[in-house]
Amino acid sequence: KIYNMKFIDGGQQFVKVTQDNNAYADRGLLACSYFDMTSAGRTFVENHPEPLQPPPTPNCYTGGLDAHSTYQMVIRDNEIRNMYCNNGALSEHGIHLWKNNQDPIIERNIVINNARGIGVGLDNQVEDRVYQNNPLQGTGFANNTVDHVGGVIRNNIVYANIGTLYDTGIGLERAYNVSVYHNTVYSEQNSGLNSGIDLRFVQTANTRVANNLIRPGMTIRNSAPSPVLNVDNVFAQSTM
């Protein structure tokens, strides 16, 4: 349980949840906490490369919450700001669950000026946790091809005014059976190079996306199927 904390300039991921020798952090809570990266912290991150990407590769190895292999984690009522870099490298998300998480609730968070806001799953980054309830039984997908299963992303506000440094508001990658409801995702940058909600890869199936306010629009890439419900989303136009 991480509650009512204030994190400033965390260096790499501000909060990291991981597994160790098949011991997992299940039913965790991250709530009512504040995250912010200042200009000084951003410079530090850019000047201290992640070990697997040494110079001259541009570095932005930072993010808010980074969680691996959790079950029924709740992330609610947090404010997360300014996870981005100025050097052309893409930071991790304000909130990111990947490497075999199942059934999180991500709700009522305010996510401001992050290169990537909220994400579940990632491109081919699958760990070997096998859930006893076998959530992929009958789907045709093997455990080692799906990076995230289930859960809901709802009632969050994701806003960005950082120009081309912004990438995605809410991203689902190799994420099966996820619901995305009642979120406001708005970027002042609307160049076609970024997206409000982004669905990627064929494993991102049985997805429900409804009643969201989105600018720019929703993108569906890399053979991802269309979401089950998308008729009630509103694609906002700029009033600037």
Name a few traits of the molecule.
240 residues; eight-stranded parallel beta sheet; 25 strands; mainly beta; globular
Q: Please give the share of residues in helix.
A: under 10%
Uncertain runs are none
Tell me the fraction of residues in β-strands, as a range. 35-45%
- Mean of residue pLDDT values: 90
Category by helix and strand content? mainly beta
Report the total helices.
1
Large-scale geometry? globular
Give the neighbour order of strands across the main sheet.
2-5-8-12-16-20-23-25
Distance between the termini: 41 Å
Walk me through the structure:
Helix content is 4%, strand content 36%. By secondary structure, it is mainly β. The longest helix is centred in the first third of the chain and has 9 residues, at 39-47. The model has no long low-confidence stretch (mean pLDDT 90). The chain is globular, with a radius of gyration of 17 Å. The chain has one helix and 25 strands.
